[in-house]
Automatic annotation (TrEMBL):
It is an enzyme of class 3 (hydrolase). Belongs to the glycosyl hydrolase 38 family. GO terms for molecular function: alpha-mannosidase activity; carbohydrate binding; metal ion binding. It comes from the Eukaryota. One of its GO terms (biological process) is oligosaccharide catabolic process. The lineage of its organism: Eukaryota, Metazoa, Chordata, Craniata, Vertebrata. This is alpha-mannosidase.
Length: 1007
């Protein structure tokens, strides 16, 4: 019978029919569960450690009750659950329901079987889909409950420091009958209601959905399941009305972003992976169409080690093409701060792991949640077998809306990768109508491509997809008015995008995130550890490789190096290296760094050919000389400290790539005639000869208020610039500590803020083109930002910043919103402001935050955020930066080499061998080429990999000379031999470079 239907009352009628708040005594939702039955028994024991199942189940379990609370934070409770299913439930679907605000894992027969996390909408473990006589009605389960939530245990807000005394409550633990037919009707009605509401009054499809839903309520008698099939038929009829050919296709893929550490420590992440992935595998067993894209080799490795049974199931689903390894990297690393070589190792360790474990490398780079993307990444991806990239983080831009969702991204060398941002601007979709509509509506490349990605599943803290998400999307597979939603794979998506790519636009240069710019500075110790360990691993690899060439007995420490690299790569995770993690994570990260340094540099258990190993070489005990090891590929003349008879410093002359040197100039022979350093009485240094670089206040410290809008450790906002206060309170006046000759230095101390102190030694060495600022800060601030500024007499509209294997320019003005949104940027070892013929570079040994506005170069030194780590950066800091005025361009002046020298100091060790001639292993004929890496090839002890890059931004041919006995070859970044062989000529290997090209050469030793 036709009846008048008021849109609002019809909508609300359907809402109330499926409401979990109103009318549950008589509505459909109230019928979702049938009979209930308490557990036969529940007991538990508690431990501060994360222990394996075998250890847990043999403990003594005491009584536990529903309603009881457990804690404190980070403890674990193991529950023994005895249950007995009433035989009256024959033929019914029976669930074990477990509701708690802690993260749970169900164990059955000594295997993990499902994660139970209320926040991740997983509170049921299905015991049987239809209870049979023959099934065991009584069984024992264990539930491992972590006393933390999906997002840790923040006190008051998610990113607040964890509450150490938080307790989790077990609010429900029972058996229930689950009415599957009611559930299916509920999902039908939810989708129809969403269509009715979201398609809007102007859309006739909206009314079709609404009237269908209304009719379903008419037909459905909630107390009489025999009415359900007819009700469902009404829904099926509208869902099966198809789209036209032109409709957009949404490629849905299961996903579960798990931060490798963030608001919880690394150790908890291992369990998060297991909880999330076992649930995925469980879902796959009942939904053979489900796909799941999963990144981070490290997480696979954790699960492989700790959950071998689960890992075997995962391997099966990888083989079936459902569980899909993506990304190719060891972890989803920060996209800005890791060095070029670290980036290569992320891929090398990741891709080799995926190849070894799953028989193939990944073909998509996957970094949905990282705070900006280096312009060198496209080339590194190409070199590692990847030409496709997925992220979405630029949707977080505060100022400018990124103009594309599907485009070619071109790096500084010209390499291009096909890049896709899921247009729904999320990697944690729930399969809702609203989200698929947003995916279509928001797509910035309408008319260019008609396919897009849709990553569904709870994320960040793990969780992953649910059955309900899948069931929603099944109904939207091809329903007129909604985009087509097909369960897909990254390969299927990118393959169709590649086919449609002719109209795509190209974005050149970095993908800069206009947010989270404080992460270049926060947790300075983590950043320092990263830079130091990158240097240490570089040096160990160089020295160990050359040791192998020198000494057949020497064992290259391949497995130790792999282990150390993996720890360093892990710490580059996108909430660890950026410093956006809790204190527990900071402690772990620093521990990993210290372990690395301790492991090789000192002690009997040193890894590799340490400088001390080289010093012990030789056959003439008794004689004393000094060994200078240079791990860079150019000649260096530097003042070094040599413990002499009178403890005096001596000027070392180190010539070659890697050299044993025993000749020293004595003090006074060489003086720095290039520069004169004047020290002003209040502690600022001013270089005056031969260049005037400053307007009278170089090396000016400035303190800013630093209170962002929400993301404390992450964000420094534009308005902080309005709060600048110069640091001028002198604690100790300037004193001359070394009067000159080989080295001149002065020292002074300043008061910073309320109670912090800064002591600085300013050092100028003979022959050294830069002035070094060795700095120590006792930092006790809250919400302050310390920078050091160098105003210079240079006029240029752009400044240059070092990035991975190259550099790029950014504007020094704030003309457009794209310019001023970059008020705080990142750089690696140097930045430079030059005009024709002259410029000034600012070098550093562990800092990343920087900016150049107008003529002022600023280096960001320390922040003091309070969330998620209230102790962040409080304490003692030591760092060095340097200012280098130069004639000509920064390329001609050797800024790049000097920044390397500052970061890779010469190793000076006493040697027991007689003075021997200097020995050089490698040299490169062009100053434009940096030989970055010398290492043993993976799995090939007879081969050496050298990695070089063009650093000036020029096309150049260079000769690589080596004294090692080699045959030759060439390879890509994964060390796979590709292309052609290179002939070894008299001058060495002839190598051709285009701007910023990275080249890896595999040298097979001929001996
Ligand atoms: Zn993340």
């Amino acid at each position: 019978m036709a009846a008048i239907k008021h849109r609002r009352t019809a909508l609300e009628r359907v809402e109330k029919f499926i409401s979990d708040t109103y009318f549950t005594d008589c509505n459909l939702r109230g019928r979702l569960f049938g009979d209930r039955c308490p557990l036969a028994s529940l007991s538990y024991f508690q431990t501060p450690r994360r222990i394996p199942y075998e250890e847990a189940v043999v403990q003594e379990f005491g009584p536990a009750q529903v309603g009881q609370s457990f804690g404190p934070t980070w403890e674990t409770c193991w529950f023994k659950v005895e249950l007995s299913i009433p035989s009256a439930w024959a033929g019914r679907e029976v669930h074990f329901v477990w509701e708690s605000d802690g993260e749970g894992m169900v164990w059955r027969d000594a295997q993990p079987v499902q994660g139970l996390t209320k926040e991740g909408e997983k509170t049921s473990y299905i015991l049987t889909r239809s209870l049979k006589e023959s099934e065991p009605h009584s069984l024992t389960l264990y539930v491992e409950l972590a006393c933390n939530g999906l997002f840790g245990a923040g006190k008051g807000s998610m990113i607040a420091p964890p509450d150490p005394d938080r307790r989790v409550t077990l609010s429900k633990a029972e058996l229930v009958v689950f009415n599957r037919d009611v559930y299916e009707l509920l999902v039908d009605l939810e989708i129809l209601l969403d269509m009715a509401q979201l398609l809007g009054e102007e859309n006739q499809r909206s009314f079709q959905a609404l009237y269908t839903a209304n009719q379903m309520v008419n037909v459905c008698d909630v107390m009489d399941p025999s009415t359900f099939p007819a009700t469902r038929d009404l829904a099926a009829a509208i869902f099966s009305q198809r789209n036209g050919e032109s409709q957009h296709t949404v490629h849905a893929m299961g996903h579960c972003h798990i931060d490798s550490a963030w608001l919880w420590p690394y150790e908890e992440t291992i369990r998060k992976c297991a909880r999330s992935w076992v649930t995925v595998v469980q879902l796959m067993e009942h939904n053979p169409e489900l796909t799941f894209a999963c990144s981070q080799a490290q997480q696979f490795e954790w699960v492989r080690r700790s959950y071998p049974g689960l890992y075997a199931r995962i391997q099966d689903f990888v083989a079936k093409g459902q569980f899909i390894p993506v990304g190719g990297t060891w972890v989803e690393m920060d996209g800005n701060l890791p060095s070029g070589e670290s980036m290569v190792r992320q891929f090398l360790q990741g891709q080799r792991f995926f190849q070894e474990q799953f028989g193939r490398i990944c073909s998509e780079f996957w970094l949905p949640d990282t705070f900006g993307y280096s312009a060198q990444l496209p080339q590194l991806m190409h070199g590692c077998g990847i030409q496709r990239f997925l992220t979405q983080k630029l949707s977080w831009n505060l100022v400018n809306s990124f103009p594309h969702h599907t485009f070619f991204w071109e790096g500084i060398d010209g390499s291009q990768v096909l890049t896709h941002f899921p247009p729904g601007d999320s990697y944690g979709m729930h399969g809702r109508v609203e989200e698929v509509l947003k995916t279509v509506k928001n797509n910035k490349d309408k008319g260019r491509v008609n396919h897009s990605a849709f990553l569904f599943g709870f994320g960040d803290g793990g969780g992953g997809p649910t059955q309900k998400m899948l069931d929603r999307m099944k109904r939207m597979s091809d329903t007129d008015g909604l985009p087509r939603v097909q369960i897909s794979t990254p390969d299927q998506l990118f393959s169709v995008l590649e086919k449609e790519s002719s109209q795509l636009c190209t974005w050149v240069g970095e993908l800069f995130l206009e947010l989270h710019n404080g992460t270049y500075t926060t947790q300075a110790q983590i950043k320092k550890g990263n830079r130091e360990c990158e240097q240490i691993l570089h040096d160990v690899e160089v020295l160990s490789t050359l040791a192998v060439a020198q000494d057949k007995e020497f064992q290259y420490p391949a497995s130790q190096l792999q282990q150390l690299w993996r720890l360093l790569l892990l710490n580059q995770f996108h909430d660890v290296l950026p410093g956006s993690c809790i204190q527990l994570v900071v402690e772990d990260a620093l521990q990993y760094y210290t372990g690395e340094q301790g492991a090789w540099l000192a002690g009997p258990s040193r890894v590799g050919a340490s400088p001390a190993w080289w010093g012990c070489r030789g056959s003439n005990p008794g004689t004393q000389s000094t060994l200078v090891l240079n791990t860079l590929s150019w000649e260096r003349t530097e003042v070094i400290s040599r413990p002499g008879p009178n403890g005096k410093e001596t000027l070392g002359m180190s010539d070659l790539g890697v050299a044993l040197v025993s000749e020293f100039l004595t003090e006074g022979e060489t003086a720095n005639r290039e520069m004169l350093c004047l020290f002003l009485p209040w502690g600022r240094a001013l270089l005056t000869v031969p260049f005037s670089i400053a307007n009278g206040c170089a090396n000016q410290f400035a303190l800013f208020d630093d209170v962002p809008l929400y993301w404390d450790a992450w964000d420094v906002m534009d308005y902080h610039l309005e709060t600048r206060k110069p640091v001028t309170t002198m604690l100790k006046p300037l004193e001359v500590t070394l009067a000159g000759g080989l080295r001149g230095s002065v020292r002074f101390s300043l008061k910073v803020g309320k109670s912090s102190t800064l002591t600085q030694e300013i050092i100028l060495d003979a022959m050294c083109p830069y002035l070094r600022f060795q700095t120590q800060v006792e930092w006790k601030e809250a919400h302050k930002f310390l920078k050091v500024e160098f105003p210079v007499n240079v006029r240029s509209t752009s400044a240059t910043y070092e990035i991975q294997f190259g550099h790029l320019q950014r504007p020094t003005h704030w003309n457009t919103s794209w310019d001023w949104a970059r008020f705080e940027v990142w750089a690696h070892k140097w930045l430079d402001l030059s005009e024709h013929g002259f410029g000034v570079a600012l070098l550093n040994n562990c800092k990343y935050g920087a900016s150049v506005h107008r003529n002022i170069l600023s280096l960001s030194l320390l922040r003091a955020p309070k969330s998620p780590d209230s102790t962040a950066d409080i304490g003692l800091h030591q760092f060095t930066y340097a200012v280098m005025p130069h004639q000509g361009s920064f390329q001609e002046a050797g800024v790049i080499q000097q920044a390397y020298s500052l970061n890779f100091p010469l190793h000076v060790v006493p040697a027991s061998c007689a003075p021997c001639p200097a020995w050089s292993a490698f040299s490169v004929s062009s100053p434009a080429i940096v030989l970055e890496t010398v290492k043993q090839a993976e799995d090939r002890p007879e081969a050496v990999v050298v990695r070089l890059y063009e650093a000036h931004g020029s096309t150049v041919t260079a000769w690589l000379q080596t004294s090692l006995p080699v045959k030759k070859a060439i390879c890509d970044l994964l060390e796979r031999p590709v292309g052609w062989g290179l002939s070894l000529e008299k001058q060495g290997l002839r190598l051709s470079f285009t701007p910023f090209r990275v080249l890896s050469v595999l040298l097979v030793l001929s001996c």
